[in-house]
Automatic annotation (TrEMBL), chains A, B, C:
CDD domains xref list: LbH_AT_putative
Catalytic residues (positions): H141
PglD N-terminal domain: residues covered: 5-86
Binding site for substrate: G71
Species for this entry: Halarcobacter ebronensis
Any one Gene Ontology molecular-function term assigned to this protein's record: transferase activity
Site location (Increases basicity of active site His): D142
Protein name per Swiss-Prot or TrEMBL: Acetyltransferase
Keywords: Transferase
Length: 192, 192, 192
């Protein structure tokens, strides 16, 4: 089967994790990575940096799909502006789901969101656009995650939680049931 | 194959998670949900509330299996009394195990206990009756969990721990090896 | 297929977990356990204690593979000295990987290291010799774990972390990205 091509926007550490997910999913053919001008020609896990932001207008003639592989720690403004730019140019931002993750069929996940290895999305969950649901994160029943959020590695959103747009929910953090979360939540903390 | 029918006792958030597990396990046919009188006719993930507690005597003529889908946070008295009532009427309370969970073959799990998605039960473990081993919980080697306990989402019982009956072990809590646990353990805490 | 034989060095709690992994992996035939003289003839999950350390010189004539199944809590000196002894005698110390774990193909794992159930080793990771990567541990992209470390149950090493030799990283502990870790890290703590 001919797989559709995809380009990856950002060639850092999170990119390596996403490459691993895309390879495992085996649904897209990674055509290359977009990063800074001076990195063109270098490679990440064997995939070449083929251009910088200025080349996106040209690249879309050949490649319809893109995934943002820039991380999101304190600040997600770069991910948000990339999302807008890619949409404006006309890229499709597919949902990428690791085959090692579990996503309940009673759940909706919006465009540009990536579900990493061994994440678990339980029943009656809604996840917005351009989110990272990172490795081993657990999203319990009835949770809503709005747009541009990063639910970090191994963190737990318990039942009925609402996570507002642009939230960073730290690695191994835990939320109480039915809480409302926004802003920056520290790694390992308990949010009530 | 004709699957056996099962009814679910309690139609809240935990019920939605258990429905997801029963559907994934594909062993039982969900015949409906038991909840308050005024909810009869409403539905949960597409399954109808078909009766209230008073109807159980009649329903058992057609449906032999029941699973308690009421949650257990501070207080498990409702789960315990439902367990006794269902046993008195004559229901079978099967063990429900997510196909996404791992249960060592060197382990015993008693009736009415539900093992949720991506939980891991290691070797030489004993789990009692009417427990919830919630999503992504980890029960290490040589642990004993007595009856009517809730081992919450993503929590970790390390090797040799004993959990006394009626314990609530909070989400993402961690126990030291060979500790004795009872009562209420807070989310995210470390129990020594 | 004839599986190669392996002996297990140490018959305690961690041994039971490793037996479960070896049985699930179905690659080796457990020929028996090495423990104290007075335990010879007793058994662990159905496998006999067949000798003590003094018998290793003889046993290698028939059995080429060994795995250290002594645990590592505060102190790993026993695991380190056993490693040296087994290497001196000439045993092969294979890498044991649970089929329930995920190990990225962009990763290297050295001899004598055991990857327990539902552990996740992401892309571009290097793991040294004689380590325990315990149940549900998460090792993110670009991490280095040196020799003789124990990454405990459910703990999280975030991207780019370096873990120095002989480290104990406690159960459910979390590390910040790109930190340098050595010594003893407490269960449930956040390492910055």
């Amino acid at each position: 089967m001919n797989k559709e091509k995809i380009i990856l926007i950002g060639g850092g550490g999170h990119c390596r994790s996403v490459i691993d997910v895309i390879e495992a999913e085996d649904k897209f053919d990674i055509a290359g990575i977009i990063d800074k001008q001076e990195l063109i020609g270098s490679s990440v896990l064997g995939y070449k940096v083929i251009g910088c932001d200025d080349d996106l207008q040209l690249l879309i003639k050949d490649i319809k799909n893109a995934v943002i592989t820039v991380g999101h720690l304190e600040d997600n403004s770069l991910r948000v502006s990339l999302y807008k730019k890619l949409k404006n140019i006309g890229f499709t931002l597919p949902t990428i789901i690791s085959p090692l993750a579990y996503v309940s069929k009673h759940t909706t996940i919006d465009e540009g969101t990536v579900i990493m290895h061994q994440a678990l999305i339980n029943a009656n969950v809604k996840i917005g656009k351009n989110c990272i649901i990172n490795s081993k994160a657990l999203i319990e029943h009835d949770v809503t995650v709005e747009n541009h959020c990063h639910i970090s590695t191994g963190s737990i959103l318990n039942g009925g939680v609402i996570v507002k747009s642009n939230t960073f929910f730290g690695s191994n953090a835990t939320s109480k049931q039915y809480s409302n979360i926004s802003g920056f939540v520290k790694a390992g903390s308990v949010f009530k």
